[in-house]
Write a structure and sequence with these properties.
Number of strands: 18
CATH superfamily: PK beta-barrel domain-like
Shape: globular
Structural class: alpha+beta
Distance between the termini: 24 Å
Largest sheet: 7 strands, mixed, barrel
Number of domains: 1
CATH architecture: Beta Barrel
Strand order of the largest sheet: 1-13-12-16-15-14-18
Length: 274
């Protein structure tokens, strides 16, 4: 039987990348983490041609159909340079990024003129709907939220969560389907067997060593939003997902991190607290 060391935080169970903000992403076996986050993560976004704001499924009434799209990066076999973005639309057809065709098809799907781009607005903003969930400062309203300059990220470059947090939420609300894809993390860490706490809370302000080279500084909790409640694929809409996080962990599930030292991360890599 293996002995768990005091600084062992677990192992990398899986990795996720979301090439287009608010579209579904792809599960990976390995990835490069740079000083700007996971390579290829949220490198694209849909921009509202009228307002210049970043389209986000955080305002599902307006942008919820983005969640019906799947975005993937594929190797460029022609010249070996930048990967090619492919987007599967709700009708099951594919469109390539960087083309007029995808802008036209996304505009038709969303009912308003949009463009898919890698160019970040000077002062990026998104619209966020705050559902009617008791315990939150805002309810049943829409606000404009600033995004970190120069990126399409909401809060930080890297988002981690643990199996312990998911198991804790399942225990607290057994009727809900707490699955990784609801929470859109980059890295999922398998915690010690039987650990049913929000263990990431203890990581805040600590440094994580992952694999040989990667070092992350955990900066704060990831406060959840309406996107965790939305239907996607076979997952039903369920406000109870967010309500449970609000009631039991101040709406936080997982943590944000910045990159202190870049490196490659692979499934099974050990995660240690420094």
């Amino acid at each position: 039987m293996s002995i768990v060391q005091p600084n062992d935080a677990g192992t990398i169970a899986t990795l996720w990348r979301y090439p287009v903000k608010s579209m579904r992403g792809e599960e990976l076996n390995a990835a490069e983490i740079t000083l700007r986050g996971m390579a290829g993560d949220r490198g694209y976004a849909v921009i509202d041609a009228e307002t210049g704001k970043v389209a986000s499924a955080k305002y599902p009434k307006k942008w919820g159909r983005l969640f019906d799209c799947l975005a993937m990066l594929r190797p460029n076999l022609t010249d070996g340079h930048d990967a090619i973005l492919q987007v599967m639309l709700p009708d099951g057809t594919w469109a390539a990024g960087g083309t007029r065709d995808i802008d036209e098809r996304l505009s038709a799907m969303l009912g308003r003129a949009v463009r898919l781009t890698t160019a970040v607005p000077t002062a990026p903003q998104l619209e966020e709907y705050w559902p009617d969930v008791a315990g939150r400062a805002r309810q049943n309203t829409v606000t404009d939220e600033a995004m970190p300059a120069g990126t399409f990220f909401d809060g930080a470059l890297i988002h981690l969560m643990t199996s312990a947090s998911l198991d804790t939420l399942r225990r607290l609300y057994p009727e809900g389907r707490f699955e990784v894809r609801r929470f859109r993390p980059n890295l999922v860490v398998t915690s010690a067997a039987g650990d049913t706490r929000f263990v990431e809370n203890d990581w805040i302000s600590r440094t994580l060593a992952i694999g040989k080279d990667l070092r992350l500084k955990v900066t704060g909790p990831c406060t959840r939003c309406v996107m965790t409640t939305l239907p996607q694929g076979d997952l039903p809409e369920d406000t109870g997902i967010l309500r449970t996080a609000v009631q039991h962990n101040q709406a936080a599930v997982g943590v944000y991190a910045t990159v202190l030292a870049p490196g490659r991360v692979v499934r099974g890599d050990q995660v240690r607290l420094l």
